[in-house]
Amino acid sequence: MTDTGGAAVESVDGLAAALDGAGYLADDALATALFLAVRMRQPILLEGEPGVGKTAAATALAAVLDTPLLRLQCYEGLTASEALYEWNYPRQLLAIRLAEARGEDLADSDLFTEAFLMPRPLLAAITHPGPGPAVLLVDEIDRADDEFEAFLFEALADSAVTIPELGTRRATVAPVVVLTSNRTRDLHDALTRRCLYHWIGYPDEHRVEEIVRRRVPEADGWLAGQVAAAVQRLRGLDLQKKPGVAEAISWTTALHVLGITTLDEAGAERTLGTVLKYDEDARLARATGLGSLVSGA
């Protein structure tokens, strides 16, 4: 077994404590899933609603392992070449002009070398020299096309990619791969079978409060509890986009910046856009009564 980050991944409890030290509160189920992903070196698929901490989990894991986090943000139309590498065309053009000035001829083999190669996240993760593994975050894989998903499956299965001009690159130290999905579409069975799986749900009120206290330590402690309780009540409404941890943190930060130390109806009205992101949701919250939502009355 290659180095996997030392004592932090010797046990589930050790990893949970290390993640805690990195500012990420993981419950036992998530800590176990991440522990297995590191030790088994098997990709893990984290699904859940936006804002529940999927990306933050990968970021914290990289911090714990003291290794680079290589993030590949997926989007519709993403191609394999965009995820793998690109050639430094300006530098190649400069080399051609210098050669012409010297009266020299350059062959393709002179231009398509390691010196002109610019690795993108997938290639950088596979070619990471170690001694520990890089953490490859494939963010929002559900936004990518089926073709890219199939390519990614093959690359992860072999921990290798081929560059036509240079040949095949195989991982010396296989990366820890974290895929995230907001479940905007179903992923192919071939990919999900290859992965460990964990669903990150909305944390309960007490965990949200603790997370907010850590992420916004400058805010009054009482405010974190009020925001956590109000977010919990907002989730009980029939909203198009229920607020997650990210919105709770943003809401608390906005209140603190405005000098508001107690969440009341007036403060909620002024900062509602930090926690609710659709006009229909904001109107529903106002119709329900912002005063009751923030006070629990």
Architecture overview:
It contains 15 helices and nine strands. By secondary structure, the protein is of the alpha/beta class. It folds into two domains: 6-83 and 122-199, Rossmann fold (3-Layer(aba) Sandwich), CATH 3.40.50.300; 205-289. Residues 1-7 have low confidence and may be disordered. A hairpin with a 3-residue loop joins strand 6 (160-163) and strand 7. The strands form three sheets. A five-stranded parallel sheet has the order 2-5-8-1-9. The protein has a two-stranded antiparallel ribbon with strand order 3-4. The protein has a two-stranded antiparallel ribbon with strand order 6-7. The protein has helices spanning 12-21, 28-40, 54-65, 80-84, 89-101, 108-111, 121-126, 146-158, 189-194, 205-215, 221-235, 245-257, 265-271, 279-288, 290-295; strands at residues 44-47, 69-73, 85-87, 117-119, 135-139, 160-163, 167-170, 176-181, 196-199.
